[in-house]
Amino acid sequence: MGFLHNLKITLEMIKWEHSIFALPFALCGAMLAAGGVPAWHQLAWIVVAMVSARSAAMAFNRLADASIDAANPRTATRALPAGVLTPAFVATFVLISCGIFVLAASQLNRLTLWLSPVALAVVLLYSYAKRFTRWSHLFLGFALGIAPAAAWIAVRGSLDPRILLLTAAVTFWVGGFDVIYACQDYDFDCGRGLHSLPRHLGIHWALWIARAFHLVMLGLLVALVVAFGLGKIAMLGVLAVAALLAYEHSLVRHDDLSKLNAAFFTMNGVISVVFFVFVAGDVLMKR
User: Fold this and answer.
1) Is 7 helix (H, G, I), strand (E, B) or coil?
2) Cα 196 from Cα 192, distance rounded (Å)
3) Range of the domain at 66
4) Is 135 helix (H, G, I), strand (E, B) or coil?
């Protein structure tokens, strides 16, 4: 019971249900690669790989940031700084999650297996970016942005440069909402010497950078639709994403961050699912 209890707390700590942020974009990559619905074993192992990689990354992030979280009033009650979980248990969880990811990669094709250590390095090491660069938000974005390219490789066993448009789009999408999320730690980051755009530019200008990131994302999504010869349904998906992003940004102001959690957790899950539905519908209509 002790193990199951600790596992439950770990899953709550890493918010594993938020795997939905990047998973729909990975599924977009898989469907574009297959020109329809990929083989079921490919889909299953892609999902396993995505969830295990994100689980490893989030748990590793909690380990890497344990001392920082302990000093931050907003995060001091998290499982590790509060002493609810031991570093040894979380480290074991990270290793097991990494092992499951490598297993999933091995079940897809040779190239996914060869690239699995590179993918793990990207998703694990982003945790240290905020210690040396204000652009750490884009490091996190890239860690999630590799998902659609990885899914393409999982289906095709090779890489088409066109799918990198979706990688770039996800990078700027995640980077933008991470800038918004970082605004709540402005005072702490300033006092601790951690790097973020809010800390270096102030919350007002950081929110404008987040808007700019999301405009770049929309431009990349349009380029993706054109590059793959998708149609009106996919373009409607881009317009839906634009409307949802506009609403997300309306929820936060530099002098009022009270609705930040709604903007971060709810809207971003909706955005990724909506875009997937429209792209999947477009791809299937062309079959």
Assistant:
1) helix
2) 11
3) 2-285
4) coil
Residue type, 62: R
pLDDT digits (tens, 9 = 90+) for 125-159: 888 988 888 889 999 999 999 999 999 999 999 99
Q: Could you give the angle at the alpha carbon of 69 between the alpha carbons of 64 and 73, nearest 5°? A: 175
d(C-alpha 237, C-alpha 24), whole Å: 13
Buried b (16+ CB within 10 A) or exposed e, 197-233: bbbeeebeebbebbbebbebbbebbbebbebbebeeb
Geometric angle at alpha carbon 60, from 57 and 64, rounded to 5°: 130
If one counts the domains in the chain, the total is 1
Token pair 């790097």 in the structure block, residue: 195
Strand, helix or coil for residue 257: coil
What is the CATH number for 251? 1.10.357.140
Cα separation, 158 vs 154, in Å, equals 8
Residue 18 has pLDDT above 80, yes or no: no
Using an 8 Å Cβ cutoff, are 272 and 280 in contact? no
